[in-house]
């Protein structure tokens, strides 16, 4: 029977798996699951990673309790020797390594002596959560491992039952994280191709993403502390406007800011990426546009006159030139994404193009 403290630890694990997207990062989620779980079963350490054995995919570690070199050593030298590669094809759900390999022979391998033994890992209990196949994912598996050192006993049947009890919550949480990761990857791919600099901050105003255009602007230098303070100030203003808005109203837009870098001048605008785009929490999107590009950009009335567009269609046209996605345009214009799609369809028909990437070619010199 579980003690009161064990029940408390179990509740912590279940609370984390019930809301995986409430965490700032995958590693925060993994830490919130592993830390109380290790205390619950009395482990020496643990890890949580995702891999796709069918595709021979190197594991993506969400979190572990060991030294920083563990990830590179496991990926580059020992993954092919890991018992995980034997256990996954057998359909193992929850089990101990010693049940699936000759442990006397296993203790003679380089994997045991050069990777496990220095970290005092001897007994290994594993939960293998199979995740749905989608896209290039041929069948990812979430591997949650709990470890004990040589002075400790092997995991008991009762402790393995606790892991089995947690199988469905862990599997569901990892599936949710995998889907969210795919959506975030799509958004970052859109940012990657944008001609303007993009900096994404989390709700705590910490940097989480920088696109190539901004990295080119920085030319190998990081943002100066004074620049970062000004960026965080305008991002904080955008965040405060978002939080103070009425429930049924869009947030007001923060005033643009000028950033100088040598002889180059940039206009900085900050807006909020709503919940569900980067994670379950909103993020702050900072766009850096060089002043020369601003001067070269045609205005809305010119676009309307040349192509016979309505006011809103011209606005969508200009946002497309900046590389914004439909979701971002909808947020900027304070309309629904379906409205943006409707305007964009009309823009394509009136300009005679079929892709948004072709719009810039209609304006020589842009």
Brief description of this entry?
Helix content is 45%, strand content 17%.
Task: Describe what this molecule looks like in 3D.
The protein has 366 residues and is of the alpha+beta class. It folds into three domains: 4-181, Beta-Lactamase; 193-290, Beta-Lactamase; 297-366, Arc Repressor Mutant, subunit A (Orthogonal Bundle), CATH 1.10.10. The protein has 15 helices and ten strands. It has helices at 4-18, 26-41, 69-78, 84-87, 103-106, 110-116, 157-165, 167-192, 212-218, 225-244, 291-296, 300-307, 311-321, 326-333, 337-351, and strands at 45-51, 60-64, 94-96, 123-130, 141-148, 197-201, 207-210, 257-261, 264-273, 283-290. It has a five-stranded antiparallel sheet, covered by helices on one side. It is elongated and about 80 Å long.
Query: How many distinct folded domains?
Result: 3
Q: What's the CATH class of the largest domain, please?
A: Alpha Beta
Number of strands: 10
Stretches where pLDDT is under 50 for at least 5 consecutive residues are none
Helix tally equals: 15
Distance between the termini: 71 Å
Strand order of the largest sheet: 2-1-5-4-3
Q: Approximately how much beta-strand content do the residues carry?
A: 15-25%
- How does the overall form come out from the CA principal axes? elongated
Structure class:
alpha+beta
Biggest sheet architecture? 5 strands, antiparallel
CATH architecture descriptor of the largest domain: 2-Layer Sandwich
- Helix and strand element order: HHEEHHEHHEEHHEEHHEEEHHHHH
Radius of gyration: 26 Å
């Amino acid at each position: 029977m579980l003690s009161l403290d064990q029940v408390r630890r179990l509740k912590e694990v279940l609370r984390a798996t019930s809301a995986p997207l409430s965490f700032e990062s995958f590693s925060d989620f993994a830490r919130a699951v592993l830390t109380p779980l290790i205390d619950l079963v009395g482990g020496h350490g643990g890890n949580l990673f995702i891999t796709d054995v069918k595709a021979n995919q190197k594991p993506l570690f969400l979190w572990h309790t060991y030294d920083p070199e563990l990830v590179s050593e496991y990926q580059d030298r020992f993954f092919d020797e890991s018992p995980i590669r034997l256990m996954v094809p057998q359909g193992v759900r929850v089990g101990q390594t010693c049940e699936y390999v000759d442990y006397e022979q296993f203790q003679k391998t380089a994997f045991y002596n050069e990777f496990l033994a220095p970290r005092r890992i001897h007994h290994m209990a594993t939960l293998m959560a199979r995740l749905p196949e989608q896209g290039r994912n041929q069948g990812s598996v979430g591997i949650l491992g709990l470890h004990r050192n040589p002075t400790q006993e092997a995991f008991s049947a009762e402790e393995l039952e606790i892991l089995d009890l947690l199988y469905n919550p862990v599997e569901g949480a990892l599936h949710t994280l995998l889907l969210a990761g795919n959506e975030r990857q799509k958004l970052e791919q859109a940012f990657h191709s944008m001609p303007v600099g993009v900096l994404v901050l989390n709700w705590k105003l910490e940097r989480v993403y920088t696109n190539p255009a901004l990295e080119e602007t920085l030319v190998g230098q990081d943002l100066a502390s004074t620049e970062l303070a000004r960026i965080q100030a305008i991002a904080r203003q955008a965040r405060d406007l978002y939080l103070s808005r009425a429930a049924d109203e869009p947030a007001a837009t923060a005033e643009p800011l000028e950033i100088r870098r040598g002889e180059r001048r940039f206009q900085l605008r900050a807006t909020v990426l709503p919940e569900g785009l980067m994670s379950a929490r909103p993020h702050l999107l900072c766009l850096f546009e060089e002043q020369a590009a601003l001067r070269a950009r045609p205005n809305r009335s010119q676009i309307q006159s040349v192509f016979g567009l309505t006011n809103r269609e011209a606005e969508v046209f200009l946002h497309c030139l900046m590389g914004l996605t439909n979701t971002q345009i909808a947020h900027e214009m304070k309309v629904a994404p379906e409205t943006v799609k409707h305007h964009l369809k009309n823009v394509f028909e009136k300009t005679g193009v079929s892709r948004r990437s072709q719009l810039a070619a209609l304006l020589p010199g842009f």
